[in-house]
Specification:
Layout lengths: L7 H9 L6 H13 L8 H15 L3 E5 L5 H7 L7 E6 L5 H10 L6 E5 L2 H4 L9 E4 L6 H9 L7 E5 L16 H14 L4 E6 L5 E6 L3
Parallel strand pairs: 1-2, 1-4, 2-3, 4-5
Antiparallel strand pairs: 5-7, 6-7
Amino acid sequence: MTQLLLPRALDEYIERHTTPETPVLAALNRETYMKVQIPVMLSGHLQGAILQMISHMVRPQNILEIGTYTAYSAICLAMGLKDGGILDTIDINEELEEMGFRYICNAGLQSKIHQHIGNAAEIIPELDKSYDLVFIDADKENYHLYYDLIFDKVPVGGFILADNVLYEGDVILPADQQGKNARAIHAFNEKVRNDNRVEHVLLPVRDGVMIMRKISS
């Protein structure tokens, strides 16, 4: 989450050759780093641009995000929604709700993004809709649980994204050298690898993004 997997100069080159952040996203990025604990949890410019591009390609009617943080990724993902589409985003930290909502409003997306505060494992079963695109970016030990909870809510042909699936590169360490989060992420990656209901590709973007396409129920 903090370690760059590419040399910094190459990472900076990539960002220079990616469409710049909007003024709202740039301001959100800056305020997060100035005021919020663990600001590296923010998706940031490159990953945000990739999430936005994926959303534009998928053109989802509904998106589910597990892990709002300060709403940077929610804003990026919501850019690709169809007319009338909704993004539901869940976070357990109520202290960040107001900041996220302020930037959602600044982006003009308050009618498209619905914030839910609480335990995702309790909220997800209560969401009575299907989701063309899901983004998992919350507590690492529960990735496997969130995957199971959302799987039947995604139609065949829908997409599931999971962040931090390289966990600073620790997933390739011997098991006895991995921390609990790295072990949980490695177990999640193995779960996906062995699930013949999805096609998947692991992208070495930032801290690793797994893209899954549901091919059967």
